[in-house]
Amino acid sequence: MTILCVRFQLPPMYEAALPQLLGLLEEFTPVVEALPPDGALADLRGAERYFGRSAVELASVIRVRALALHGVDCVIGAGPGPMLARMALRDARPGVTCAVPEDAPGEFLAGKPVAALPGVGPATARTLCEYGLDTLGRVAAAPLSTLQRLVGAKTGRDLHEKAQGIDRGRVVPNGVSRSLATERPFTRDELDPDRHRRALLSAAGELGARLRAVDKVCRTLTLTVRYADRSATTRSRTLEEPTAHSAALTRTAYAMYEALGLQRARVRSLTLRAEGLAPAEQASHQLTFDPVDEKVRRIEEVADRARAKFGPRAVMPGSLAA
């Protein structure tokens, strides 16, 4: 067991703590891949040899440190490869690491529905089930030629290997995702534009906090509005300058929302995505003589220092945006 898939149980609005938690994993291995907003993959092959402990034992240490240092619990899956670790995570629970047996991954997968395999979409799963291949065990036992006739040569070969537990994936170290996203679902289909705007205010505040936490700025902001009938509208807008300033993100989000001209739309959720991320030190900032804007930026700096010192619960992202 060399790969861990960790999902930190971050409360809503506190995903900005992820970089600090990734730093905790990097104390064990430099091979850490962020899975925003709340997860990561860690390759512990070197750590197992260095510490003389198995990946499952190291997972227990990671969980204790996350609780002690950050007040965040986590669930962990372990496996010989990234795909298997991700699948093990689904069966894990706090305090109990779910591990895929390294010598018998096929047995772990055999009883799972074919749709549980990463990369198998609804259409592929439906096709396989129509021919009685509804579990991964049956897919693994099926002739390769049969699978290739049903779903295509390349897809059939990949599916046959994965169903047998052959995991050719690897952990790709990264500092931060190329984009960051946050969603604000409503408990019921929402008609009130004021509630829509409050959700956008909260989402933009969170994105700003997360960007500043990893010293990034974004160039483009994308808004996705999902409706009660499951349809969606997506709009993107390039910012005047790359920024992580919550107030600027909020203004852009409001502008995109207003441009949609929604009339009594039943909205199910709103999603904001920051794209085109770049290091903050490489971004230029146009000087402004607006005292209100400068005051908000100083307040953001103070709030960010409070989060770094006292943890993600110290300040509510979005509460400082205007």
SSE arrangement:
Blueprint lengths: L2 E6 L9 H9 L5 E4 L3 E5 L1 H7 L3 H16 L3 E6 L2 H8 L8 E2 L5 H6 L11 H9 L5 H6 L2 H8 L1 H11 L16 E11 L2 H21 L2 E12 L4 E12 L2 H15 L6 E9 L2 E2 L11 H20 L12
Parallel strand pairs: 4-5
Antiparallel strand pairs: 1-3, 1-4, 2-3, 6-9, 7-8, 7-9, 7-10
Helix pairs in contact: 8-9, 10-11
What does this structure look like?
The protein has 322 residues and is α+β, with helices and mostly antiparallel strands. The protein has twelve helices and ten strands. The protein has helices at 18-26, 45-51, 55-70, 82-89, 105-110, 122-130, 136-141, 144-151, 153-163, 193-213, 246-260, 291-310; strands spanning 3-8, 32-35, 39-43, 74-79, 98-99, 180-190, 216-227, 232-243, 267-275, 278-279.
Features:
single chain, 322 residues, alpha+beta, 5-stranded mixed β-sheet, 5-stranded antiparallel β-sheet, 42% helix, globular, disordered C terminus
Quickly describe the structure.
This protein is an alpha+beta fold and 322 residues long. It has helices at residues 18-26, 45-51, 55-70, 82-89, 105-110, 122-130, 136-141, 144-151, 153-163, 193-213, 246-260, 291-310, and strands at residues 3-8, 32-35, 39-43, 74-79, 98-99, 180-190, 216-227, 232-243, 267-275, 278-279. The radius of gyration is 22 Å and the shape is globular.
Query: What assembly state would you assign to the polypeptide chains in this entry?
Result: single chain
Radius of gyration: 22 Å
Tally of extended strands? 10
Q: Beta-strand level of the residues, as a percent range?
A: 15-25%
How many DSSP H or I helices?
12
